[in-house]
Amino acid sequence: MTRVFSGVKPTGHLTLGNYLGAMRRWVVEDQHRSDALFCVVDLHALTVDHDPARVRRLSRQAASLLLAAGLDPALCTVFVQSHVDEHARLSYVLECVATDGEMRRMIQYKEKAARERGGSVRLSLLTYPVLMAADILAYGTDEVPVGHDQTQHVELARDLAVRFNQRYGHTFVVPRATHPVVAARVMNLQEPESKMGKSDDTGPGIVYVLDEPDVVRKKVVRAVTDSGREVVYDREVRPGLANLLEILAACAGGEPAELAGAYDSYGALKKDVAEAVVEALRPVRKRHRELCADPGYVEGVLRDGAERARAMARPTVDAAYRAIGLLPPVNAAR
Ligand code: TRP
C-alpha cells in the first residue's frame, strides 16, 4: 500500500487554508486509500524565535484539530515528531549527505533569513529541510501531500534519498510531492495575492479553524474585493473575488465560475461565503470542543501513534546507520 506522510508545524493556529487545502483531503482521501502518517512536527517549530509554552499549546491543539477534522487513529497514524527519536537520529546522518550549498539555495531559507535582517538566524533554520527529509525518508514514504511552497523541500528529500542509495546501498524509498488538484490555495482575505498562512499570526485576512462564527462572518465581510461591480471569476484581474468564489466552492460545492453567475452583488456573495465557511467549520469546532474535554483520549492517541511510528521508522533508520558505516551497538550485533 502507498505510504503517505505529511506534517503540520505548530507555529500558529491552523487556518481555513490549512483545512481546505490540506487536512480535509487527508481525511476524505489519504487515510482511506493509503497507509498514512500525520505528524505534528514540533521540532520544526524551534527553528525560529519561539515561546516554549506556546509551542506546547499549539502542538496539543494541532493534534486535537487533526482528530477533530476527522483523521481516524484506526485508519492512520497521528503523532508528535519529538516523541519519536528516529527523526533526529536520521537527520544527523542526512546532514552528512547534504551539502552546505544545497541548504543555502532553499528558497524558504533565503526568504526567512532575509526577514531576520540584523537579528540572528538559528542554525536549525538552515538545516530544517534535512530534518524534513528525515521525517519523510524514515517511513519509506511514497507520497508527500504538501502545498507548493514545500515542493523544493520534498525535491531535496528525493535528492538525498537517491544520493544515499547510490553511495551506501539501497536504503530509502524515493518520495514524491503530491498536490491537491482543486481548492488548494486559499488566499489571505486582505491580501488575495498571498497565501492564507498560519505563521503570520495576526491579521483580519486569516480565518482560523477555531474562530467563532461571528468572527468568521466579520472577516469575510471585510474581505478585500476588487474594483468593479459584477461578480465574475477571474483569478488574474479579480483575485479577491476569485478567492471568495473558490472558498465558496470548496465549502459548499460547485464550480467557482458557475457560482459567480448566481450573484449580482459582492454583498450577497460575501454573506453566502461566510455562512458556507461557518458551516464547513462547525463540525470540526464541535468535535474539537469534545476532545478538549477529554484530554486523556488525545494523549492515548498520541501515545499509540508514537509507538506505531517508532516501530515503522526504526528498521529504516537502523539500516541507514549500518549502511553509512556506523558500528552496530554490541547488544544488537550478531
Ligand atoms: N515544512 C512543512 C511546512 O512548513 C512541515 C513539514 C515538516 C512537513 N516535515 C514534513 C511536511 C514532512 C510534509 C512532510 O509546512
Total domain modules = 2
The CATH superfamily of the largest domain is identified as HUPs
**Strand order, largest beta sheet:** 1-2-3
What is the CATH level 1 assignment of the largest domain?
Alpha Beta
Q: What is the helix fraction of residues, given as a range?
A: 40-55%
Order of helices and strands: EHEHEHHHHEHEHHHHH
On the 0 to 100 scale, the average pLDDT is 93
Rg: 21 Å
Beta strand %: 5-15%
Return the structural class: mainly alpha
How many strands in all? 5
Labels describing this entry:
two-stranded parallel sheet, mainly alpha, single chain, binds tryptophan, 7% strand, Tyrosyl-Transfer RNA Synthetase
Short description:
The protein is mainly alpha-helical.
Describe the SSE topology.
Layout: E1 3-8, H1 16-33, E2 35-40, H2 52-69, E3 77-80, H3 86-95, H4 100-104, H5 107-115, H6 123-137, E4 143-145, H7 151-168, E5 176-178, H8 213-221, H9 239-252, H10 256-260, H11 266-292, H12 295-324
Parallel strand pairs: 1-2, 2-3, 4-5
Helix pairs in contact: 2-11, 3-6, 3-12, 6-7, 8-11, 9-11
The chain binds tryptophan.
Structural account:
The chain has helices at residues 16-33, 52-69, 86-95, 100-104, 107-115, 123-137, 151-168, 213-221, 239-252, 256-260, 266-292, 295-324; strands at 3-8, 35-40, 77-80, 143-145, 176-178. By secondary structure, the protein is mainly alpha-helical. It folds into 2 domains: 3-179 and 295-333, 3-Layer(aba) Sandwich (Rossmann fold); 213-290, Tyrosyl-Transfer RNA Synthetase (Orthogonal Bundle), CATH 1.10.240. It has a 3-stranded parallel sheet. A two-stranded parallel ribbon has the order 4-5. Strand 4, helix 7 (151-168) and strand 5 (176-178) form a beta-alpha-beta unit. The radius of gyration is 21 Å and the shape is globular. The two termini are 32 Å apart. The model has no long low-confidence stretch (mean pLDDT 93). Bound molecules: tryptophan. Tryptophan binds next to strand 1 and helix 6.
